[in-house]
Amino acid sequence: MKLLFVGDLVGRAGREVLAKQLPKIQQQYNIDCTIVNGENAAHGKGITRRIYHQIKSLKVDAITMGNHTFSKGELLDFIDEAEILVRPMNLSPLHKGKSVLVLPVCGKRLAVVNLCGQVFMDRIERDPFECMQEILRDNPADLYFVDLHGETTSEKITFAHVFAKRCVGICGTHTHVQTADERILNGCGFISDTGMCGAWDSVLGRDKEEVIRHMVYHEATRYTIAEGPAVFCAVVITVNETTWRAEAIERIQIRP
Q1: pTM score > 0.85 for this model?
Q2: In the CATH scheme, what is the code of domain 2-254?
Q3: Which position among 68, 149, 174, 176 bears the catalytic label?
Q4: What is the four-CA torsion angle of 18, 23, 27, 33, rounded to 10 degrees?
Q5: Per-residue pLDDT at 38
Q6: Residue ranges of the alpha helices (H) in the chain?
Q7: Distance between CA atoms of 250 and 234, rounded to whole angstroms?
């Protein structure tokens, strides 16, 4: 079994590089299940109905989110219809959408889980460790994959040490900078941050000149997404179909 997880899409540049690279990656690695983080897909914050369907049309099996899940108000109008959208279980508001999606993959039930870390994050209502225990108890599946959307590597690594034996994949998102710590941990493919799909000449996908004016010269600026050629970041996790444990994780970074 081959699982492909694609890091945060950031704006139009991220969506365009996804459309360009995804079919080639899926074919090259013979991917069985594709999961994409789309929480920054709509101009850097949130997702719209149009963009949701655009991503879904690329043979994507699940779309995970993060702290910007509800930045676009229109999501509340269609989240219950978005059958492959998975939002963080512990992000306010808690009662909208689903946080676990169980998919049939290679004759097994794969549970795709979305959680937010607590450290340096806003509107996080519940402890991700407690949430994961609840998910494992209440959502029976053969395999579990977690998109842990968090600010700190320490929290994500700690989470992996706690839950690796129950999961085949735990992949971090949110910081947009791909980390070089991919490993197999107790039969689980882990990486602290998968990285982003967004404009390469930028500050985490955001227009660098706008960020400099705001951060260095303290100007009041308008949040602006960078344009131009984009980087594509993802990981491929190989699951052994005898033991049903991860046996390899490969980090992918395609720069323009």
Answers
A1: yes
A2: 3.60.21.10
A3: 68
A4: 60
A5: 98
A6: 11-29, 49-56, 75-78, 128-138, 153-163, 208-215
A7: 9
